[in-house]
Amino acid sequence: MSVMRSAQGLSALRDAGNGIVFTSDLGEYPRETYVKVRYGERNTDPMDKVLKSDAEWRAQLSDMAYKVTRKHGTERAGTYEDFPKEPGTYMCVCCGAPLFDQGAKFESGTGWPSFYQPVDADMVGETVDRSFFMKRTEVHCNRCDAHLGHVFPDGPQPTGLRYCINGVSLEFEPEA
Predict the structure, then answer these.
(1) Nearest to 109 by CA among 65, 152, 171, 173
(2) Which of 8, 67, 121, 125 has its CA 20 to 30 A from that of 139?
């Protein structure tokens, strides 16, 4: 049996016979139950990790959103060209974390929504992607590990970055 610890005082006990059991100040639960007990239906703390089983993600997301966010797929260019133009925030379709502001969106001509910076750099993580015989920088939601797209060094000022994001990985929340 191995034990993994997190910043939230959570221990995950891996037992080959019984799967994963999480133990915390809330009690001891299988992973799927622990997430619901700790976070309810929607996590409100942007830095708390959202952990769900594959079955839970499949039940929550559309087929395309599941393929893109959980299996690192890519939607066809031009699939989501009708995003709103009014002020607001683009949220992660999986966990609702605030990712990009409408003010940072620009027309890149690629067919995917593009932004020059995230709302909070801590909310968008980066990993090296070596698929398709090239080296790119993948971006993902740091809260739930959803694949969002890639970031390239050919964007506008002030950052010079282009966050090329799959539209299906985002939900738009208008400014109140």
Answers:
(1) 152
(2) 8
Tokens of 110: 């690629």
Query: Which helix (H) or strand (E) segment is 148 a member of?
Result: strand 147-152
pLDDT value, residue 35? 42
Q: Which CATH architecture has domain 70-174?
A: Beta Complex (2.170)
pLDDT for 133 equals 75
Q: Rounded to whole angstroms, how far apart are CA atoms 84 and 72?
A: 25
- pTM score, two decimals? 0.72
Name the band, by pLDDT with cuts 50, 70 and 90, for residue 161: very high
Spans of all domains in the chain? 1-39, 70-174
Catalytic positions, written as ranges: 164
Q: Give the SS3 label for residue 95.
A: coil
